[in-house]
Amino acid sequence: MKKEVCSVAFIKAVFAEFLATLIFVFFGLGSALKWPSALPSILQISLAFGLAIGTLVQALGPVSGGHINPAITLALLVGNQISLLRAAVYVVAQLVGAVAGAGILYWVAPVNARGSLAINSLNNNTTSGQALVVEIILTFQLALCIFSSTDTRRTSPVGSPALSIGLSVTLGHFVGIYFTGCSMNPARSFGPAVIMNRFSLAHWVFWVGPIVGATLAAILYFYLLFPNSLSLSERVAVVKGTYELEEDWEAHREERNKTMELTAH
């Protein structure tokens, strides 16, 4: 675990998560600003969030894995894909990045366009319970898409993971905006809430919903549909961050995956 933290690769990965989340929040929230001359459309906002994620996964995914979302990071921890320490540091980096992105947008946006800075809220008489279910479903499909499209064990063509993930985010927004403004990402909800100092009584929905949805997807994908062949001791080592050296992480992972077959049971 100590070697993982002290490695250059780990530091780069943490910075990539911070930067990616900052950019994602800036562009996503920026697309939803209420300009007096032209109010944003559902299509515009949905495409902006999707394009931002797709671009950032393509650009910074090779550095950190391109999580850009605490719910995805925690789900990968549950799926035994990353260490506990990496997950914790990633989440902190993502939340700080989200606050920074929202803060920069607040600073550059004119007062008459800021509005609420696109804070997530319950819309159209949606109850907290209904919003929770919606966020679970939205994030479930996103997480499932991420796990499947980035699984290096797959032998069938997967196309572009960045494009698939971007489209999945766009799909979620097409529906989710009407209910909750569409979070699917606790960092996306946390950033503007901090900057505007506005935490509603339903803010918990934008944490619990995405985390539960992504976790359910991880359990389904990594333990039921396509389980890996790691032993219990190896799984524990992954969580502890001692399974392999950080410097050789990608190389070892590639070699390991070549010996594994993706089988559905």
How far apart, in Å, are the first and last alpha carbons?
A: 34 Å
Mean pLDDT: 90
The helix tally amounts to 12
H/E topology pattern: HHHHHHHHHHHH
Radius of gyration: 18 Å
Structure class: mainly alpha
What is the tally of beta strands? 0
- The low-confidence parts are 245-253, 255-265
Sheet of most strands: none
Helix content: 55-70%
Q: β content, as a range?
A: under 5%
The coarse silhouette is: globular
Question: Which descriptors would you attach to this protein?
Answer:
265 residues, mainly alpha, 12 helices, 0% strand
Describe the structure.
It is a single chain. This protein has 265 residues and is an all-alpha fold. It has twelve helices and no strands. The protein has helices at 2-6, 8-31, 42-64, 70-78, 84-108, 111-114, 128-149, 161-180, 186-196, 205-225, 232-240, 249-258. α3 crosses α8, α4 (70-78) packs parallel to α10 (205-225) and α7 packs antiparallel against α8. The longest helix has 25 residues, at 84-108. The model is unreliable at 245-253 and 255-265 (pLDDT under 50).
Compact description:
This protein has 265 residues and is an all-alpha fold. The protein has twelve helices and no strands.
